[in-house]
Design brief:
single chain, two-stranded antiparallel sheet, globular
Length: 208
């Protein structure tokens, strides 16, 4: 896994300064010359190099794409299978373009079936971000540029924000947006203060 050194330093520093055990799962360890996520967890999204295009259609988001050692999306169907029995928590680690480490956690995370367009259900937020920017996407179906399931009758939010996400009307977070853009079609958390990111990792585990 290649990630430039400053991001790893920020991640390590951030984790060290965020010791609340409730958020500390899926920690990284350096083993046999590579970084791995330790513990019984599954990473399902990562953006770190910007070398994988995330502006894709429905089929790709259902099946997954990218390189699991680098930038990738695991796939909506896999997420549904992992979470359908319930009792799953989800964590997101992020680094802003300004170099701040953010971590948010949801005590409950579930992705519905394909027949319901992989609807998002989350609750139980904790974290050090300014806002819970996934809350406004709660109970929304997933949308892509070729599959508009958002709440806006005039717009296709996935096209407007250049990603695939559980868009409502349209964005409060956009972690699958364009990695390289510095405007609102970019890769960001928090639609109010518009926090651009340089790194994200989303992961799940069975709640203890
Ligand atoms: Ca729409």
């Amino acid at each position: 896994m290649s990630l430039n050194n400053y991001k790893w330093i920020l991640l390590m520093f951030g984790i060290a300064n965020y010791p609340r055990s409730s958020a500390n799962f899926c920690m990284r360890r350096y083993v046999d010359g590579k970084w791995i996520s330790a513990g019984d967890c599954e990473v399902f999204q990562r953006r770190m190099n910007g070398d994988v295009d995330f502006y894709r259609g429905w089929y790709d988001y259902v099946k997954g794409f990218g390189d699991t050692d680098g930038d990738f999306w695991l796939g909506l169907e896999a997420l549904h299978q992992i979470t359908k029995e319930g009792n799953i928590e989800m964590k997101i680690e992020m680094i802003t373009r300004d170099g701040f480490y953010l971590v948010v956690k949801y005590r409950n995370f579930r992705i519905g079936p394909g027949s319901d367009n992989y609807r998002l259900t989350i609750s139980g937020y904790s974290g050090n971000a300014t806002r819970d920017s996934l809350a406004r996407h709660n109970n929304r179906q997933f949308s892509t540029k070729d599959a508009d399931h958002d709440l806006s009758s005039k717009k296709n939010c996935a096209s407007k924000w250049e990603g695939g996400w559980w868009y409502g009307t349209c964005g409060y977070s956009n972690l699958n947006g364009n990695f390289h853009k510095t405007d609102r079609e970019g890769f960001w958390w928090d639609g109010y203060s518009f926090i651009l990111l340089s790194y994200s990792e989303m992961k799940v585990r069975k709640r203890l």
